[in-house]
Specification:
Strand content of chain B: under 5%
Number of strands of chain A: 18
Number of domains of chain A: 2
Number of helices of chain A: 9
Oligomer: heterodimer
Strand order of the largest sheet of chain A: 7-8-9-10-11-1-2-3-4-5-6-12
Shape of chain B: globular
Distance between the termini of chain A: 79 Å
Helix content of chain B: 55-70%
Number of domains of chain B: 1
CATH superfamily of the largest domain in chain A: Lipoprotein localisation LolA/LolB/LppX
Strand content of chain A: 25-35%
Order of helices and strands of chain A: HHEHEEEEEHHHEEEEEEHEEHEEEEH
Strand order of the largest sheet of chain B: 1-2
Helix content of chain A: 10-25%
Number of strands of chain B: 2
Structural class of chain A: alpha+beta
Largest interface: A-B, 44 and 41 residues
Radius of gyration of chain B: 21 Å
Shape of chain A: globular
CATH class of the largest domain in chain A: Mainly Beta
């Protein structure tokens, strides 16, 4: 009978875990019916301007794990394409935002307050400070900080919703619970079967109409990429959150993320370029970056982005990239294959990137003249 | 020599092979409770732990960690290159020596010390043949385990404190203490910084106590103290090993060692209380399970030596 004690304790622990998980698990609350259009309008009209929340992002693209794990938080491209990461966001209207990417013993912050944008990376103790032009001050999220803004569900949802056109099926077909909030699930799926994206789901708060989670599904049953709140509070963050003072002793630099000089921003094409510096440090501005703009070939879900030669030319000799890619055909082209995004790197330096099947992408690459 | 200590060294050869306290586990007759017996036993236990030369050497090894790092950084500034977390920050603020030393100590040195203390705790007594004399003290077996647990917990706290205080003294002497630049880039005053450091010590103590509880359980299983010590250290090493295998990422959050470095949360502008509570809860859950196993074992075990 004495051995009942550990059983009871273990049972209590298991019960405790279950109770704490029950509130956050994927239950299906009963909510008034909404059509997709109603939901989207409500999202647009949502009067939530201030919030604080914790976000978890995870990518299982089928890539091997890369440097830039949870030990060192930094806004580098590796951070977002492998493993799982968490962040905290504070939003107070269009002029004040803060994102903190949380590493185990490190943190990378971007603070936007009016015309000022600061970034801080604890691992290198580096600060950057940018003063935005006056007329743009209110729109930083859209113009200057793709990596920071797109890490939030709202930013990602906006991008996905923009892609909606006749090629796409949109439905509200279930409900869920995200970060303790009842939510509708908006499911977006491409009609074109050549796309590697099978569906995208967006969980939308049923009361506040704030997008809470986005999941992108490839061919598998688990999301290839997901980002969502694990907790959210619709309260105005303390003003001090946005008053960043350059800490004493920190190194100041001008543009460590390269985000302003990078028209692609968070786009996956930018990540391929980033392979030239496969370290956990923020990607430095690529001197070889061509001034030629990338081209978009095709429309809708099967559109392919062509990055001109020079923008990624040196990467074919990079050993990390050699490990990540496989050879296709006999022309020396290489394929980077993930659960959603595929990229073909041609020997002449051009790179084709798209959420399409490898054969479709190779075909586009072969038929597009240099 | 304490009273409890004295009990363990005289009367050798008496009542070998006889269950002494709480003879039949089912009919565990509670010995009469004497006022202060528990406190006396705890005091004796602590005196024994702190005066044993081996344990003093172990604490000395822990103290060497911040001293060594402090001198190394003073001699040659590592900048922000490789090395343990925060090491590049020490020159600017001696307080970071505490965090660096803890980060260095947590994966191996601290588990080693705790493994020795907890593993030896009961198995050592059994191996030396002193456990049965200890049970002649008017304290039930469950209460004896409670005393042992409390003593091991105290020693865990002292171990962490040694690293922190020596780190603080060395840091202050070599680099000075200044306002703390948090991981978030915001700066807090020295008062808040010391308070946060205290929180870090508390967090790490609880995290390591989970391992100490495991050591206590293993210690009840055997009379071979060395085996119990090695097995306890192995828990930490094995857990860290599992934590390093990416294919097992699904079980990582539940591993004993996974959140040992979670004290970093206390060094942010906005501290996520829910994260700290759930991580500390995990450590306490491990401790509760190990201690209940130890209780079941010690109350049912035939103590013959």
């Amino acid at each position: 009978m004495a051995w009942a004690a550990p059983v009871v304790v273990a049972g209590a622990v298991a019960a405790g875990v279950m109770v704490s998980n029950a509130s956050s698990s994927a239950a299906s609350p009963t909510l008034p019916t909404r059509t997709a259009a109603q939901l989207l309008t409500a999202v647009q009209k949502s009067n939530v301007t201030a919030l604080y929340g914790q976000i978890t992002e995870s990518a299982s693209l089928g890539l091997p794990s890369l440097p830039g794990d949870r030990a060192n938080a930094s806004f580098s491209w590796q951070t977002f394409i492998t493993g799982s990461h968490s962040a905290k966001v504070w939003i107070d209207g269009p002029d004040k935002q803060r994102v903190a990417l949380v590493g185990e013993l490190s943190e990378a912050d971007v603070v936007h307050n009016g015309q000022n944008v600061w970034s801080y990376t604890s691992a290198t103790d580096t600060v950057t400070h940018t003063v935005l032009p006056k007329d743009k001050a209110g729109q930083t999220e859209k113009t200057n900080e793709p990596s920071a803004a797109d890490a939030t569900p709202a930013g990602l949802a906006a991008r996905v919703l923009k892609a909606i056109d006749p090629t796409t099926k949109v439905a509200v077909d279930s409900t869920t619970v995200v970060a303790n909030q009842d939510a509708y699930v908006l499911t977006i799926s491409p009609r074109d079967t050549r796309s590697t994206v099978s569906k995208v789901t967006i969980a939308i708060d049923a009361k506040k109409y704030v997008p809470l989670a986005v999941k992108i599904y490839g061919t598998g049953s688990t999301p290839a990429f997901q980002v969502g709140f694990t907790s959210i509070t619709y309260a105005k963050p303390a003003a001090s959150t946005f008053n960043f003072q350059t800490p004493k002793g920190a190194t100041t630099s001008n543009d460590p993320f390269g985000i302003k000089s990078d028209p692609e921003g968070h786009h996956h094409g930018a990540k391929v370029k980033g392979t030239q510096k496969p370290t956990a440090e923020p990607a430095a501005t690529d001197p070889a970056r061509s001034s030629k703009a990338p081209k978009v070939i095709g429309k809708g879900w099967t559109s392919v982005v062509e990055l001109p030669a020079g923008s990624a030319g040196a990467t074919l000799n990079n050993s990390t990239l050699q490990d990540l890619t496989t050879s296709v055909g006999n022309s020396g082209a290489r394929l980077l294959h993930t659960a959603v995004i595929n990229a073909v790197l041609l020997p002449d330096g051009r790179v084709f990137v798209g959420a399409v099947s490898p054969s479709f992408l190779e075909n586009v690459a072969a038929t597009t003249p240099n | 020599m304490s009273s409890a200590d004295g009990l363990r060294t005289n009367g050798a050869g008496a009542t070998t092979g006889v269950l002494i306290s709480g003879a039949a586990p089912s009919a565990d007759v509670e010995p009469k409770r004497y006022r202060g017996a528990f406190v006396r036993l705890y005091r004796g236990e602590m005196r024994l732990l702190l005066t044993r030369r081996r344990n003093m050497i172990l604490l000395g090894v822990l103290a060497v960690v911040p001293i060594f790092i402090g001198i190394a950084v003073k001699v040659s500034d590592p900048g922000n290159g490789d090395g343990p977390q925060f090491i590049g920050r020490i020159t600017g603020n001696g307080l970071f020596l505490v965090f660096t030393a803890l980060t260095v100590g947590i994966p191996f040195f601290l588990p080693l010390v705790i493994g020795v203390i907890a593993g030896d705790s009961i198995a050592g007594e059994a191996g030396m043949g002193t456990l049965r004399y200890l049970l002649t003290v008017p304290v039930a077996r469950g209460r004896l385990l409670a005393v042992k647990t409390l003593a091991v917990a105290t020693f865990t706290f002292i171990s962490v404190l040694v690293v922190a205080i020596i780190g603080l003294i060395m840091g202050a002497a070599l680099f000075g203490l200044h306002s703390l630049v948090l991981l978030s880039g915001d700066t807090v005053g020295i008062g808040s910084a010391l308070l946060r450091t205290l929180g870090v010590v508390a967090y790490v103590t609880i995290a390591l106590f989970a391992l100490a509880a495991g050591g206590l359980f293993i210690s009840t299983l055997t009379e071979n103290a060395i085996a119990a010590m090695a097995a306890t250290v192995s828990i930490a090493v094995f857990s860290a090993l599992l934590d390093a295998v990416p294919q097992l990422s699904a079980i990582h959050p539940a591993l004993l060692t996974d959140h040992w470095l979670g004290f970093g949360e206390l060094l942010r502008t906005s501290i996520s209380a829910s994260d700290l509570i759930s991580w500390t809860g995990l450590h306490l859950a491990y401790a509760a399970i190990f201690l209940s196993l130890a209780w079941s074992r010690i109350t049912t075990r035939d103590i013959t030596s």
